[in-house]
Amino acid sequence: MRRRGLLGFGLCMLYAALVASCVWMALGADEKGRFVFLQLPLTPQMLALEALGVDHALHGLSWVASYLLLVPPFLLLLYLMGCALQALGQCTIMRLVHAVRGSAAKQSRGRLQP
């Protein structure tokens, strides 16, 4: 059984834990702390939107709407990045194993010949 999405799933769970902890900390904070803790998990998405020049679209949205709009695509992106990194790592490891086996086979053939 292949576990291709394990790293992607792990990245999603790590981000979900960060979001949950920030929302939990925002519940007991003052107004400024609430703003900071609610904004913190959305920082990567807001930076990307600012770089694209469409950050003005978020003005006036509630926190719930912002989370519903920005978190699911980011989770999908994290999952796909994790899957790609895991596939790249597996491919690299397999190439390394084949290279080591190939060089070991050449050395053993060289020893057998007088």
In brief:
The chain is mostly helical and 114 residues long. It is built from 4 helices and no strands. The two termini are 45 Å apart.
Give the helix level as a range of percent: over 70%
Biggest β-sheet description: none
Q: What's the number of helices? A: 4
Rough shape? elongated
Question: What is the count of distinct domains?
Answer: 1
Strand content: under 5%
Question: What's the overall average pLDDT, rounded?
Answer: 87
Give the CA-CA distance, first to last residue. 45 Å
| Secondary-structure element pattern, one letter each | HHHH
Low-confidence stretches: none
Q: Could you tell me the radius of gyration in angstroms? A: 23 Å
The number of strands is 0
Helix/strand structural class = mainly alpha
What does this 3D model show about the protein?
The protein has 114 residues and is mostly helical. The chain has one domain (6-112). Helices cover 80% and strands 0% of the residues. It is built from four helices and no strands.
Provide tags for this entry:
mainly alpha, elongated, 4 helices, 114 residues, single chain
List the topology elements:
Blueprint: H1 6-27, H2 31-39, H3 43-52, H4 63-112
